[in-house]
Amino acid sequence: MAIPTANKAQPTPDPNRAPALDTTTKNDARAIQTTKPPTHSKTREWAEALFIAVIAAFILRSFIVEAYRIPTGSMENTLLVGDFLLVNKFIYGAAIPFTDVRVSGIKDVEQGDIVVFKFPPDKEINYIKRCVATAGSTIEIRDKVVLVDGALYPLPLNARMNDDTVASGRAEMNIFPKYTSFNKDNYGPLYVPKKGDVLKLTAENFYTYKAIIEYDGHTTALMGNQVYIDSKPASDYTVTQNYYFMMGDNRDNSLDSRYWGFVPESNIVGSALMIYWSWDTEIPLSQITEKLGSVRWGRIGTIIR
Fold it and tell me: Where are the domains positioned within the chain?
């Protein structure tokens, strides 16, 4: 006998509730909607990448490291004409571009450092020399022998001296300071000013300290035995920054502090770090075989000391 099957009870619709299907369908429809990402042109992408690269290069060149080329033989044989250098700019504290403000460095310039600096008579030109005397010391040269505070400063390892010695007391044209009996081989003694020094101003030392006062934006004049600063009589002057005495390693062929004076700290650019390329710059690129043959492979990667 067949067993009758029971009919399943059907749920009673709730008249106050909207069908679930309607709600689910709307939510699903919203969920599957996608927003198309904005598209950028290749030109814009390249422009953004180029802008970032330019900013990065500007920061690197302004504050970290910069490349320079040696144009003259004043540092031979430590540095040769045609050497290309990397210069460490943050070690002494780099200057913020377009201002006179400097960020703090790791150390001060020290005796023996090879330094890139802005040429005091013309800040548009960069020079490279070796620091021989730092602020607060006294330099003297006797028959080509350099003394700093009375102690021998030895000739650097690869330095050169070629000419005969100029006798003591034989004044040399264009020597610093003006109107002295100094020459390149017999020089000084001369004190290198440091920040905070109070310099006594006289007619005798006016040309020694004239540039230091003018670096600070003042005018100077000497009338008779009286020194004037900004048209007012002055008997002393307080030094506002450190100064350095620089010389080339090619002692007889170097236009350096012996001829144009002290280097102010504000003119310091950086410390010579490494030679990254070296060749004969006299050979034109049109003679490519000879040019490549002049590469000084042994100098590439040399740490500068």
Answer: 61-197+239-299, 198-238
What pTM did the predictor assign? 0.79
Q: Which residue has the tokens 């548009």?
A: 124
Let me know if 74 is a catalytic residue.
yes
Average pLDDT, the chain: 85
Q: Which of 8, 36, 89, 129 is catalytic?
A: 129
**Contact between 81 and 91 (Cβ < 8 Å):** no
Beta strand residue intervals within the chain, DSSP E: 65-69, 83-88, 114-118, 126-133, 138-142, 145-148, 151-153, 187-191, 198-200, 220-223, 226-229, 232-234, 236-238, 243-247, 263-264, 268-278
- In three-state secondary structure terms, 162 is coil
Q: Is 291 a catalytic residue?
A: no
Name the least confident of 48-57, 179-188, 264-273, 281-290: 48-57
* CA angle, 18 then 23 then 29, to 5°: 160
Average pLDDT over residues 273-286: 94
The label of the residue with tokens 């010579």 reads 272
CATH class of residue range 61-197+239-299: mainly beta
Catalytic one of 74, 137, 254, 271: 74
Preceding omega of 177 cis (within 30 degrees of 0): yes
* Token output for 217: 């934006």
Cα 86 to Cα 275: distance, rounded to the nearest angstrom? 6
Task: Evaluate if residue 6 carries a pLDDT over 50.
Answer: no
